[in-house]
Amino acid sequence: MTDTPQQTSHPVPPEERTWWKESVVYQIYPRSFADSDGDGIGDIPGIIERLDHVADLGVDVIWLNPVYESPQRDNGYDISDYRSIHHEYGTMADWEELLAQVHDRDMRLVMDLVVNHTSVDHEWFQRSRRGDPEYEDYYIWREGDGDGPPNNWESFFGGSAWTYDEERGEYYLHLYDESQPDLNWRNPAVRRDIFDTMEWWLEKGIDGFRMDVINLLSKAPGLPDGDPDSEWVGAEHFVDGPRILDYLEAMDEQVLSNYDILTVGEMPQLTVERAREYAGEDGPLDMAFHFQHTKLDYDGQKRWSVGDWDLPELKEIARRWHDGLDDEGWNALYWENHDQPRVVSRYGDPEAYRRESATLLGTYILTRSGTPYVYQGQELGMTNAQWEDRESLADVDARRTARELLDSEQYDTFEEIADIVGYRSRDNARTPMQWDDSEHAGFTEGDPWLQVNTNYEQVNVADAREGDSVTKYYQSLIDLRNEYDAFVYGTYSDLHPHHERLAAYTQTLEHPDGRVSERMLSVLNFSDKTATVDLSTTIEDADLLLSNYDRDTIGPTRDHEPYEARIYRLE
Ligand code: GLC
Fold first, then answer.
1. CA of 211 to the centre of ligand 1 (A)
2. Among the atoms of ligand 1, which is closest to the Cα of residue 337?
3. Cβ distance 198 to 255 under 8 Å?
4. Of 24, 55, 59, 357, which has the highest C-beta tally within 10 A?
5. Tell me, what's the pLDDT at 9?
6. From atom 4 of ligand 1, which residue's Cα is the shortest distance away?
7. Would you say 341 and 347 are in contact if contact means Cβ atoms under 8 Å apart?
């Protein structure tokens, strides 16, 4: 029997299709999603109760932030036991129920893997600091250099990356908080223990890992001083370190490749060239999160600053990553996560055009090739919250920075730093999910661990079920993505790279013989002014599929209203 012509020339043959390429991922931050027992802290039974909201959006995968036992200095990124569930979140039985309920709804569950560091409360660290021979080499211990730490490396959260431990009489390395000591990946026993733990979770039936700061595992031998003027002092000796690919390849060979899973690495300072090595055809991971588009609103290089951003730069980043990974690799597309302030407050307009800009920004993530990630509340158009004083902040990073700025000569009062710290704090992403307009937005019957955004009466899930809400628009975007392969497997092309206000790009899917199978055009006005672009020469016949303004049909050359987004199918 011969194949029919249609089958042989299908633009995406079955062997090239992969579920994780076709998925939309929804991220749940357990502490802030839903509280079932009134202690003010989100928990796993709370997630189960609200799972239909997630399923109704049409997403395929849930990425759950860390739920392991932890003293919660960094909200679970400081793990004290890799194989148990944090008691405030529930029990292992609750987690197993969650997994079953996610699978029942035809979704998948991806867990957070945090293996660059543990908590100081982890038994490994406790034994290591005591000098237990089995564990003494599990972390990175050094003697000081004279009176000071072993080198000039800095913690990402500020200050030295070294803390002196009285008990052991040495310094330990921590690239994050002092409660998060870095594991020594040079030690084969550490690698074996981590790989065993990963296997243990995979055997429970999970569908993948999001890997926390995974390109920092390998530190340069001798731990040399870093360039004191760089953005993160020491980074050149631990970002993409000398043995990182060996570690990840071993992880892939011994663990990951035995399962049909999604793997995405979070990678500070990632370049597209390095991404091809990590997540190319033969790379150990499926895809990676880079940060280039999240730094556009910095003033220069500094994270704790706010500057103007410009659209041609955003488009240039998109082009670089699409072109760079087009033939080799796969993109991960996102705006928000638990570390990023709310995107509407950064690249949209949270006051005059909240609905329009939230839907426009959603369009940008969901109409390009790559796997899109949507963070809880993004589908409501949640915005940054109001921070009145230092005590209202909870994030270790923001609190430390606020303290440092106020201790410096430069500032005297919180008001003076509110614009920077309030805008940039990770707390903005972590305010409780807004379910309805009842007290505490329906998140808890107790006192929420972090204040609820004051706009919850206007912005909440119950309301979003009616009218033309941001949530409904996200549902339509996800439906469209499922209907047209061009959004997933097509080739991205930017039609107007230099336009200051509009982004106009196509996603084109071709048959192997070069005939166009599907071609989609998205035109997005990223500004609060009317904008026009002439696309008449490239486009003759266009069918409007979706817009965030009320339109039945419209050609691509007409004026675009503030934050208008339109998606066309081209004939
Ligand atoms: C990652 C996490 C962040 C955490 C840090 C240290 O960047 O996303 O929340 O603070 O790693 O684990």
1. 10
2. 8
3. yes
4. 357
5. 60
6. 77
7. no
pTM given for the model: 0.97
d(CA 472, CA 466): 8
69 assigned to active site? no
Residue 333 pLDDT exceeds 70: yes
Distance CA 379, CA 365 (A): 12
Residues 6+ apart with CB under 8 A from 78: 70, 71, 72, 117, 118, 119, 120, 121, 177, 179, 180
Which of 5-19, 201-215, 421-435 shows the lowest mean pLDDT across its residues? 5-19
Is residue 7 scored above 50 in pLDDT? no
User: Residue 53 above 50 pLDDT?
Assistant: yes
| Backbone dihedral angles phi then psi of residue 302, each to the nearest 5 degrees | -75, 130
CA of 521 to the centre of ligand 1 (A): 36
In 3D, which of 367, 358, 426 has the Cα closest to residue 157? 426
User: In the predicted model, is pLDDT for residue 540 greater than 90?
Assistant: no
Q: Which of 74, 212, 277, 397 is catalytic?
A: 212
How many A from CA of 112 to the centre of ligand 1?
10
3-state secondary structure of 569: strand
Q: How do residues 522-534 score in pLDDT, each as one tens digit?
A: 999 999 999 998 8
Residue with tokens 């915005």: 383
Nearest residue by C-alpha to atom 7 in ligand 1: 213
Does 266 participate in catalysis according to the annotation?
yes
Distance 213 CA to ligand 1 centre (A): 7
Q: Is the CB of 77 under 6 A from ligand 1?
A: yes
Q: What pLDDT shows up at residue 556?
A: 78
pLDDT of residue 381: 98
> Which letter does DSSP use for residue 305 in this model?
-
Task: Copy the structure tokens of residue 41.
Answer: 């802290």
Q: Which amino acid is at 177?
A: D
Query: What is the DSSP code string of 16-40?
Result: G--TTTS--EEEE-GGGT--SSSSS
> Residue 5 carries which DSSP code?
H
Instruction: Tell me if 269 CB under 6 Å of ligand 1.
Output: no
